[in-house]
Amino acid sequence: MISAVSEDSFLITLSDTVSEDLPARLGSLCDCIEGQNWPWLTDLVPSYTTLLVVYDPLQVDFRQVEAALKTVVSKAPTAGNETTDSHRREVIRIPVYYSPESGPDLESLAAACELSVDEVIRRHTAETYQVYAIGFAPGFGFMGQVDPSIAHPRKETPRSHVPAGSVGIANRQTAVYPVASPGGWQLIGLSPLRLFDSEKLSLLRAGDRVRFLAITRDEYLEQGGAL
User: Fold this and answer.
1) Is residue 227 part of a domain?
2) What is the Cα–Cα distance from 137 to 196, expressed in whole angstroms?
């Protein structure tokens, strides 16, 4: 379904419910739209079940945009199509220094889950996560699903400052803060990887698959991390 939501944007809705195939379908749809090289396209914002398409109304009439989007959506890959799966790049590996020094909530989360710190780390690094959406901050990828045994709610009182590179858990989601910002996720480590910059933009895209790799303190510092 394609619907106008403002004078400069349309919302493409692929489903009413979240499912495992949607991130890849949304990623493929983004690729299809970007491949059109429309001069009036200004932004694409994928979410769990939708894609927001932002355009410049000074360059194009909304009827033209709607018609163009309908054409692309009708030709875009759907669930079960091999092209959908081929959108995904190789699994992206994100190095993380897990420790109470780098993850101020690691020990308390382990205690709440009745697990050792090492077991929390093992379970967090054992999964392959899907990027469901990009939002909150530039390059912030909402990933899931975390092992239920280490899922934990957001903090009741968010921190006013979370360092860039912080790796957090919120319920069954996990993410890396690409820039310093306020935040309420349970922080369990730090990554030296730069997930966003103004030139290369976001490392992560909806539909990507991610694995976390535990590294030592020395490796973290050698790779450009800061404490």
Assistant:
1) no
2) 10
Last residue of a domain, one of 44, 68, 86: 86
- Enter the pTM of the model: 0.76
22 lies in the same domain as 105: no
Same domain, 126 and 68: no
Domain count across the chain: 2
Locate all alpha helices (DSSP H) within the chain, ordered by sequence.
22-34, 62-75, 82-86, 106-112, 117-126, 217-222
User: Which stretches of the chain drop beneath a pLDDT of 70?
Assistant: 77-89, 198-201
Count Cα neighbours of 149 within 13 Å in the Cβ-side half-sphere: 13
Q: In what order do the strands lie in the sheet with 9-13?
A: 2-6, 9-13, 50-55, 41-46
101 shares its domain with 129: yes
**pLDDT at position 159:** 97
Q: What is the pLDDT of residues 133-174, one digit of tens each?
A: 887 777 899 999 999 999 999 999 999 999 999 999 999 999
